[in-house]
Amino acid sequence: MTAATVMTSHRLVAMANQIANNVPSREGVAEQVAHHMQQFWTPPMRRELQLLAQSEPELFDAAVLDAVALAPV
Amino acid sequence: MNSVQQFDPATDLGTPGVLSDAVVNVVIDGIEIQVPEGTSVMRAAAIAGAPVPKLCATEQLEAFGSCRLCLVEIEGRRGTPAACTTLCEPGMSVRTQSSQLDRLRKGVMELYISDHPLDCLTCSANGDCELQDMAGVVGLRTVRYGEGDNHLTAPTDASNPYFSFDASKCIVCSRCVRACDEVQGTFALTIAGRGFDSRVSPSEEQAFFDSECVSCGACVQACPTATLQEKRVIDVGVPTRQVKTTCAYCGVGCSFVAEMKGNEVVRMVPDKTGGANAGHSCVKGRFAWGYASHADRITEPMIREHREDSWQVVSWEQAIAFAAERFQTIQRVHGTDAIGGITSSRCTNEEVYVVQKMVRAAFGTNNVDTCARVCHSPTGYGLKQTFGTSAGTQDFASIDEADAIMVIGANPTDAHPVFGSRMKQRLRQGADLIVIDPRATDLVRSPHIVAKHHLPLMPGTNVAVLNAMAHVVVTEDLVADAFVAERCDATSFAHWKAFVALPENSPEAIAELAGLSPESIRHAARTYASAHNGAIYYGLGVTEHSQGSTMVMAMANLAMATGNIGRRGVGVNPLRGQNNVQGACDMGSFPHEFAGYRHVSDDSVRQQFADIWGVSLREDPGMRIPNMLDGAIAGHFRGLYVQGEDIAQSDPNTHHVTAALQAMDCVVVQDLFLNETAKYAHVFLPGTSFLEKDGTFTNAERRINRVRPVMPPRSGKAEWQVTCDLSAAMGYPMDYPNSAAIMDEIAALTPTFAGVSFSYLDKVGSVQWPCNDSAPLGTPIMHEQRFVRGSGQFMTTPYVPTDERTTRKYPLVLTTGRILSQYNVGAQTRRTDNQRWHGEDLLDIHESDAQLRGIANGDWIEVASRAGTTRLRARISSAIPAGVVYTTFHHPVSGTNVITTDNSDWATNCPEYKVTAVEVRPAGGMSP
Ligand code: SF4
Ligand code: SF4
Ligand code: SF4
Ligand code: FES
User: CB contacts < 8 Å between A and B, how many?
Assistant: First the structure.
């Protein structure tokens, strides 16, 4: 991975974490995040997030890790 | 150009029309007519076909009764009352002609003419002067008064770049003064002196340019003589034909009559039948159209192999073939999704529609986005979640019935001036004003208007403040229970109510964080919630935050809870920045939606498009602008078509944007000028100005207005034709005989546009979508019986502070905005005389912050953020609180977006322009 790809990948994680922090309800956060990504993220972005969830889970909010598991790509 | 109509000045009925259900019958010169109660005799006479001579009256202004030219006789009444100030009464019988009236009127005219230069033949207003017309109407042939005291040598004030004031021709009718007061609401003019010495004076006997005048031109339009006149008319002569069209600047979408001489615009006159503006305008629309013929305009296609090479002028065919070949090569090597396009809110609905169609059908990807990403994408998201559709709820006229007006993060007198004037009219009638904005915008205190509440909150705390207002509403029993029970979803309401009632959402809990007193929040909430009609108007100060979408939902919640939705005088209304932001969004410019806001994954919708377009379409959302830029830096996104937008100047974190553009193999820019983005382009396709376009714009109130060409495209091709050519070269021909046919396709595929066509718009003037079988005349007010989504959905809106925090290194919060005379990145207005009002961007800083740093007014300063550094000059200002600095972004040299960061709205990635942590220090010397 180049420095540029690392940076943009980390931005994906930051975006996902931000979504988890902001979805309206505090119940079912993972489902809301998964739905949001389904609606607005391209499949390659979702795939990349999935790979990062395996390689660098420490960057992720727990709800996003759950969401990644829920969201089919 | 079949849309050109012949010159036919519309009749001025003398006094404003009246809305009344009651009617009165009157007889005018033997003709019986019926008029609404409250109509003047003057207006009734004009309607009856017996117009009365007039000088001080015009239907744009309330009657004043000063010139005494409009005298009439009324049966059973003594004397000769003025027709403009006398109201019709049942059974009244009026005579507009008699020998007595002739004599009196001639006497009045004689007095005027004896103090007026008799140079009609060489006067620039010859043929367009009411004084001249009236002299003819009353049959004045001789003037008995000899040389006495007069004003014939009074000076001319030519300080305003667009109009001049020749005092020798002034008849002191006060129409200009009243236009400035009543229509524009600036109160810049007065009649100074008394009797013979009375004269029109801007502010305190200043020159127009130095006065409070905002150059809206209402006074020029109202002036019946050549006293106040456009310099263009003086230079070019009176127009010979006219074409109705729409302003291409802001989201108000004012209608104009372009008055032409051949293919040259003489002047733009706001159209009094215009649905959005009713005859008013601002300095941009009326005067700042000269950029369209500016020498910087590029009118021939150009290409270059590498972005370091100089541009090569080529034929249209070569440019299109070059772009198509590059895009195809990228797709072959890097995949279908390695290219995409950006549509522009400055272009017509038809131009935008064909670009997104080209991306989806010819490129075969959903990688299409629009500049609304960086302004109102949270509006789309937030209003769709709560109400079910991505648009403002009201027409502009609705504000005439609002009792409490809450303006949040918007500065309508600068950014939406004609609507700002309308809002001020309502405020002067006594509606309460609540301003939620870090800055004391002009609205907070202006002539005859003082905001009842101004909440100067810290940037970034919008959601906390709205939650606190909602807390007051639910805990002080201010909920409109019946409305909520009948119209809204009960479960979501119960959740929301419990959430906002939590102590952590109380005004007391968030006051310190927001920099406000708890009482001010409580009072503002009570004013809004207890008004008979409470209306919310908002701008980019709501959307351009990390919680932009949450804030839109918070406002929608508050409006539903207080029953302020679904009738005139209420609503939640985005003030859209660019002229066609609404339209660009409606037309399917977002990567996840087809026209009419329908998700690409909806099989039946996708099938309809696939059937009519004759291709199969992708069901997964494409990339947004920031995703494309990130993709370019990562190396997998390599080609971009940019329609009429300057992302290198307008998008945040300039370094990141330019690095992304630099990483691409093919950037195609379609624009009027070689803008900042074009520095990184390989293909430049010359665009058309609004004066050359044939199409439609949709304004902030969903009003679809016609844009008509007044001259042929200077590049020889309409923009939509160029897009179609590129699409064809990419293997997907799009054949339209004209732009009307594009609208026909939009109507066929978009249920909310089903009733729209050019011929219908030409017939009715304009229409607000939804316009279809269930609403053939359009929809001024939405959600009247039910919400578009059924029942209104409350969304809980937890406050999450932005990651952009102030620190010891970056202790100040920078927020951005715009000013009246310039527009957006300034590409157009900087190429007009509007430049004289705002030649550079300044950084407003509070006195205490300036003192602390040793900064004086006018000093060059350096502004540094985590993203970058730029230099500006400082202006000490009391309009912003300590801890906050403010600037505009109209000039590329200021590099405002060099310092804004990548932070964005959580739901839509709309950039957080309104909050950047910065430090400011004296720079010394000049800007580099
Ligand atoms: S400038 Fe024109 S409108 Fe104003 S008072 Fe003089 S004549 Fe009337
Ligand atoms: S141009 Fe507009 S603001 Fe200026 S004096 Fe005339 S009406 Fe007033
Ligand atoms: S208010 Fe907006 S639409 Fe109207 S003239 Fe001014 S810039 Fe144009
Ligand atoms: S037009 Fe009626 S008094 Fe002037």
Answer: 62
What contacts B204, CB < 8 A, 6 or more positions away? B211
What residues of chain B have any CB closer than 8 angstroms to a CB in chain A? 337, 366, 495, 546-547, 550, 553, 591-592, 599, 620-624, 627, 630-631, 633-636, 795-798, 800, 803, 902, 906-907, 909
Tokens 């003064």 belong to: B177
Task: Give the predicted TM-score (pTM) of the model.
Answer: 0.91
User: Shortest CA distance to B114 belongs to which of B125, B126, B106?
Assistant: B106
Q: How is B876-920 classified by DSSP, letter by letter?
A: E-SSS-TTEEEEE---GGG-HHHH--S-B-TTT--B-TT-EEEEE
- Cα→Cα distances B280→B9, B179, B253, Å: 16, 10, 11
Task: Bin B205: left if φ > 0, else alpha if -120 < ψ < 50, else beta.
Answer: left
Q: Which residues of B touch A25 (CB under 8 A)?
A: 495, 796
Instruction: Name the residue facing B550 among A5, A22, A40 (closest C-beta).
Output: A22
With a CB cutoff of 8 Å and minimum separation 6, the contacts of B119 are: none
Question: What is the CB < 6 Å shell around ligand 2?
Answer: B 179-180, 184, 186, 188-189, 213-219
Whether residue B551 contacts residue B459, with contact meaning beta carbons closer than 8 Å, is answered with: no
| Rounded CA separation B667/B339 (Å) | 10
Contact B592 A43 (CB under 8 A): no
Domains of chain B with bracketed CATH: 146-293 (3.30.70.20), 302-375+585-690+699-705+741-768 (3.40.50.740), 385-574 (3.40.228.10), 812-922 (2.40.40.20)
pLDDT tens digits, one per residue of A23-37: 988 888 999 999 999
What is this model's ipTM? 0.91
Residue A47 at interface with chain B, using a CB cutoff of 8 Å: no
- Give the HSE-up count for residue B662: Cα atoms under 13 Å, Cβ half-sphere: 7
Rounded to whole angstroms, the Cα distance separating B570 from B806 reads: 37
> For chain A, what percentages of helix, strand and coil (3-state, to nearest 5) are there?
80, 0, 20
Q: Which helix (H) or strand (E) holds B526?
A: helix B518-530
The C-alpha atoms of residue B286 and residue B233 are separated, in whole angstroms, by 13
Rounded CA-CA distance B33/B95 in Å is 14
Residues B700-745 pLDDT 10s: 999 999 999 999 999 999 999 999 999 999 999 999 999 999 999 9
CA distance B730 to B734: 11
